[in-house]
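During the first year of the project, the team set up a workflow for recording each protein of interest as an amino acid sequence followed immediately by a discrete structure-token representation. This format lets reviewers and collaborators read both layers of information side by side without switching files. As required by the reporting guidelines, we include two representative entries from the current panel. The first entry is reproduced here exactly as it appears in our internal archive.
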Amino acid sequence: MDETERIATSPSSKGRETSEFLMRIVRTLSHSADFEQREKEKARIDKAYKQSDKKLGELVTAHYEDLTKVTQDFSRMSKCINDSRERITKIREDLSSCKTLLHCKRDELRRLWIEGVEHKAMVALLDQVELIKEVPVKLDNFIISKHYLHATDLLVNAVAKLEKPLAGIDALRDLKAELIARNEQLHETLIEELNKQIYAAVPDQSVSLKRSSSYRRGSNLTKQLSDPECKQTKPTELLKPPEMMDLNKEIKEDLNGNPEENPAHFIAVLVEALFVLRKIPDSAERNKKMKDPLGIKSKIEPELSAIVARTSQQVVDSYAQQGESLSSQNQPRFLLELLENVFHQFRNVARMHKIVLRNLQRIIPTPEETVDEVSGVPVRNELLYDMNDVWSKIQAVLELVLREYLDVQTSSRQRAPTSFDEPSTDINSYFSKKKPTKSKKISLFRFDASIHAMSTNSYVDDNMTFDTGNLFHVNLLSEVGLGKHQMEMCKPSVNNITAIFMPLEAFIKEVEDAVACQDGTSSLQSFVTEFIQNIFLGQVHATVSSSIAAATKGLQIIISGFDALRHVVDHKTQKDLGVTRPLLTSTVTVDRNIRKLQELMQSLPTYGDQFLNMICNILKEYRDTCNSAYRGIVQIESDEKRVISATWAKDEDISRFLRSLPSWRSLQMSERQDLSKKLCSEEEIRTLNSKEALILISNLSSEAIIPQQEIITDVTQMRTIANVHESLEWFAGRLRQFCELLSARSPNSMNSIELSTREYPPVSDKSLESLKMLVKDFQDLAEICLLLLHLEVRVHCFYFLLPVAKQSNYAGPIDDLDPDSNVLKLNKDLSAMEEMLVQSLQPQKFKYIFESLGFLVSSILMSSIQYLKKINENGIKKMCRNLFAIQQNLTNITMARETDLDHARQYYELLYMNPDDVLSLIVEKGPDYSYTEYVSLFQLYQKSHPHIKPANLDTLLHKLEEVMNKTQNGSST
């Protein structure tokens, strides 16, 4: 489409675009140079106009009917307008003539109008009298249907008419007095209804008593809790938050609906009705004219107390078993359920009060001022209470409830120790020996079971049961009818705080968020904090300390070696704990107390650091007690000298070497269940075992004999050490898990360990590090006990085997083939230790104690050949008997043949051969022993055969050196 057609098809911009188009045509024709160009332009324009005319004709043809209808309508409208103009002109002329006629009779019309007004006033006055007479009946109907705003408007308007327009009618005096009295009655009714809406209506029906399946009772419990008269309303919609209320919205009342269907609107209606009655000041404070002297603010505390009493009664009725009270069950969960329901209802009460205050603020934005009649000074009328008053009363009532159920008065008589939660606290007094108490005198007879005593005790118990103390004020008790069921919820106890602390703190947080406290802490929070710090923590500390004191006293008895079996847990406890070996009763007692403190950390997370410090203090004391017990076993009398095994276990070099051996590392891997990886080959293990034996031989063989006081001769003490090891290792493992959970909750931790349902609170890094150090101390002491047992068994071998070579005769003329007496003593000692330790140690640890013991025995006896002065064939047989007896005993203990003892026996059997035959055997089969062992063998052979001269011995040793060098070079090539 060209430009001309576009202009034709755009009627909205026709005028402007047509002018522009004509101007362009003029400019084009004026600037054309020749005639032909102008003719072309003219032809193009003619063509465009023809097309436009054609298009216009088509459009007219297409819309002919519409165009015809529009034309007809326009003609009809034009005719109507002309007719209207004519009629208006006529009316104007008629009005002008009427005005002229009325002007002629003006005085008569004025007289008639005045008479009409007077008659209307009389009729209206009679109508008002008739309406006033119907007011009492209508008022009763409105009050019955609870349309209080209509009732108030009706009453106020009626009284106003009786006082002004109808004041002179004597027949209405009695009605006026009646309505004025009804005014006061309506005021009281409004206050009662407002209090009922505040304290009885529960808008959220989703919250009910959370009882377990075994304690389920009636389904109407929540209904009874929310309404003492069991007349529970069913609101169709939830209360709107007070902040969302439209203060500018006019309060209206629907006569066709249920007024209580929307509690928020109903409260607004009640407040509006009080305002219409002009009773707002009296409603917010005391009204001495009312029969009930309590206003809204003064009724807060008794109504809250009534809620607590009503809820307590319903919980008792729902959960108490027949013939048994809740207090005898001693379950704090009933108290928790009571508080949760009370918290829910208190929140609703505060919510209702907030709605009331918002409506009061809507009606009276700022307090008014009046002038004192006596002094004439303006006085500011504090008409409105605020939410601080409501929350203050709520906290006061809850504090009274908590004081009774937490047994504050009884517990406050026991003073808590100061700074008991400090890491430096000294609680040695709980572990020190107590003075023996004097035996009590035993009465010959008593009258406890007599009828008089039983009746007296029953009377005292009843009085104590129903004595509620200071749970509520006395006057409040008398008003709301409380005092019988408050103490039947559960027994008052300090420990009840653990069950209610978390929901209580959550509610306190709501209170502090709602109330602007000056110091940031509410009064209820101050009470809870003071109770926990001054009473609860002190009692927990004293209870735990006394329990641990008794347990550690038992550990001291174990140290003395008296009746040790009585101080390990029984089999049932072992099974419950999931352990296979006995644990010390003291350790289990300490662990149970630690577990209780850990549960308290979860129940009272705000005081997590205090409980952790308490745990650290207890662990420090128990660690010191365990160290003292360990020293009491390994220390020789009062001297600082200890048994040999304890000295070596404490030695850093020896301890580090023993911990590097494959046997120790395999023991640690077995604890982690990682046994698939083999640490060393058999040859490497034999080399390391020989190094261990060499270290022990070099330190012990040089002595003439080991003193008896430097070994542990009482095998029961070794069992005690084994029990200490198992107990402390188990204890350290449980503490280590606790550390991991705390580390995951530490603020600086990046771990994402999945915790239990109830997490531990974050704790300070200092306390956590202190706990980790204590865990390491317990683990170290447990490992030292195991190393001590490992070394003690080997020291016993030296103690019995060194005299075998140094003191016994192996060249006597008597044919003595029995094993040496010291060997028999060693076997008996090993069997006794095996019998004790197999019951106290786990199999892998028992294996660690007796593993490679055959190699050590063979090394001791082979190295002891240098101490033999002479030996004959009978002596050789006797030595072989010694080795066989030890081998048989060790095989019964380890359940494996000790081939190292065969090696030692074959070594002594070489003495049957002369040195030349031995050299030939070395050349033929290679050396089975070291050069030093062969030298000791040749030297003993020379001492046992005097005909061999020392020069010949030197020659044999020279040949031996050559043979050994040759065989070693041959093996290396």
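The second entry, processed by the same pipeline in the following quarter, appears below.
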Amino acid sequence: MNRGKSSDETLIEMDRTAWSGGEENNGFHTSSDKEILQLENAESMLSVVSECTSAVSVCSSHSSVTVCEQCEREHTEPQQHLTSFKGVDKQQQSKDSVYFRDGVRRIDFVLSYIDDKDGEKKQDRRKEFEANLEKAGLELETEDKSESEDGRTYFLKIHAPWEVLATYADVLKIKVPFKTNDIPDKKAVPMSWLCTPYRLPERVMQPEPDYFTATFDKSKTDFFLIEDKDTFFPPSTRNRIVYYILSRCRYSKEDKDKKGIKRLLNNGTYAAAFPLHDCRYWTRSRDANCDSERYSLYKHWAGFSRFYKEQPLNLIRKYYGEKIGIYFAWLGFYTEMLSYAAVVGLLCFIYGVASFDENVWSKEICNDSIGGQIVMCPLCDKKCGYWKLSTTCSSSWQSYLFDNTATVFFAIFMGIWVTLFLEFWKRRQARLEYEWDLVDMEEEQQQLQLRPEYETKCTHRRRNPVTQDMEPYLPLKSKCARSILSGATVLFWISLIIACIIGVIAYRLAVFAAFASIMKDSPTSKLEVVGSLITPQFATSVTASCINFVIIMFLNFLYERVAIKITDMEVPKTHVEYENKLTVKMFLFQFVNYYSSCFYVAFFKGKFVGYPGDYAYMFGKWRNEECEPGGCLIELTTQLVIVMVGKQVWGNIQEALVPWLRNWWVSRNARNHPESLYSRWEQDHDLQSFSQLGLFYEYLEMVIQFGFITLFVASFPLAPLLALMNNILEVRVDAWKFTTQFRRPVAAKAHGIGAWDEILNMIAVFSVVTNAFIVSFTSDMIPRLVHKYTHQTSAGDAMEGYINNSLSVFNISQFRPDNRPDDGENPDWFYGSNITTCRYRDYRYPPGHEEQYKHTMQFWHILAAKFAFIIIMEHVVFVVKFFVAWLIPDVPSDVKSRIKRERYLIQDYLHNYELEKLKIQLSQNGPNIEQCTCPTTAATPVKMEVLSDCLT
């Protein structure tokens, strides 16, 4: 917790030349005359203020208050001396000034609006809203439209004085320091010097002073370590408190339910509402009172040249709040853990390259005397002719790079890696929760902080059995109806996705025959390097994957809006409940949207094709697709790469390029204006607004990526490497976007990553099953192992003859007329030889056998081996997962001891504090008590309307 400035710093830190002139504070002060303050008058006034302030500080420790003579003579409060200054001219004020014109009161929030010609209703709303803000204790100052860069926009600046901050810090249970931490730091990590190149300087990391903290209590301010009230609450806490008030302030006298800045933004009463950045991102602020934290973040965090450096998480948390800090902590930790998976995946790929010569079955396919003599049955009806197995030579070699012995090892490794990632993140999160004062952030407290929309839409009231207060609620009948409608909508959209996927499958089946007919005489087949790669199967797979990606993006664009609307319709009670409901809806949709095509290729394609003479058809029209003799694994890899990489590239363009173009378009004229005219609030107004669901989309993008690298990683060991490269860029793109392209978000607290934690656990468990099935049914690993151990002999390689053994025989004369190739579709070599049979991928008895075309015993042996492998792999991985989860505690031992020590000290110090307070009260009951000599008006505190769902 930042304790603020030193108490010996002056209250007003301004240059002497700043008092040369100024304007009246429009919208805040009542006086309209303009005056020029001479330096001597300013200094004398400062001395009066100093005298008054010191008198108040002396008085505050007694039961009575003695004010200075000028206060008593003018019957004003000491603070009014400060607000009477009109000394800072806008032309002389720093471009990055975040203070009112008096140079003392900090701007905690800014509202902007354009005064429309037909905006009487809006004007009345603003007048009532601003009056209620002042009743709540906030101080306002308006910048006239003539002072703005466009000449049309008014800016309302808001300042929260100490009384307001203290009240709402009590309401929101904000933790503040009360004692220096007395637990010794743990010993330095051995060999820590190795990490020096990756570390940032201490001045950038800005580690928080180590204090024990307790929830703020306004009645016990002297219990806490308060050195300077002006800087005790950091700007992120201040804007959070102000936004809490804004979201609950009424703007209508007639209707009490009409309240909140969100509704005023939606109906156009205000154009924008945002806290201010403290400076321009590319240079430090010229105002000595500004910390220039934005500049530090841009220089040491958002720069792409800093990709190898650690993130300044404490500074991120201090500037943006805990919720955004947790996101970047999780993203950084996920990226760090990805590096280990990427290294192992790369080693598995290198093993595939190194053992290339051991690929006996690919050699047989490419051998003219083996693969060149095997005639394969047509892959489609009518338009596909007979073909030789040797034409799949290239795809067979490619498939081996990802379908080898290392694939099994990597699938098992990733199942354990996922567990380690989740368990170590729990420990990291627990440490952050303690360091960032999130340990005792009561869920009940969050439940009491209702969403303003919930209070507005729920007209029914009932008594809370715990607090005995009347609170809004949604009747069970209405809640059930809304939930049913919401669930039906989600099911409809998921069904729509499945329908689109079926449409893509139908496209694959329909165009394969066309590609086969067109490409047999295509000039691309004569190209030296890529000619052999451009096959009908490849063309069908790539075009279908691209079409599927376009459909995914389009449906995603539509469903985002639908999910928000149906979540709003459900009227969740709290912000946490709202985000959880939206998270579940969006993830269910995205899960089906992004992964369904991969599931089709992995588990359905080539599994239900029948056999020559009795093929299976989709809708009785299109013949089901077959896998190449090399298997469907290489096609799954192609599908995975296109969707995964395409999504990442599109996401980075959408996140970085689009906001930059929008900001450039909005502020293209502002660069031509003099620097002194383009104020801090105008600069931020021209930036993009960071929506309340901005982090939600960031998490969603990363969780979808997490699914790709875990659910289907057995088909593509390089997936973690691609994800790692993307995430290294993603961290810096997000940092650059936050610091340069978006307005400063309202700070918010969060325990952790919320519902995403459960989703990640679900994916982790599901990934073990999917990878086991991919190795068993999509890969050819199990059939090859069965062949190897059943044909093991002392002479020769056991894998010799595998290709011939894995292909069944069919009599060409038994083809149905509908399945036979049309005249002219067969290659020339087919007519020059007497070919009576063709081969196909399966384990069936040959023609002439008493059980011809039925599955052989080898088929059942391989099927049993596949299921046995699935059971063994799942049990081994799950046992290791649960053992690792049990072995690694969720909370580090030193964090547990610190939490226990802090809770003990809170009780002990509060007990001693109350005793001391009682002793002082008893000692003041003596006969000689000085009576209060202050005027009643000076001693009476300012009345303030508290807007809170937590108070009665």
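For the second entry, the following points were noted during internal review. The chain is about 50% helix and 5% strand. The CA atoms of residues 135 and 235 lie 22 Å apart. Both points are flagged for discussion at the upcoming steering committee meeting.
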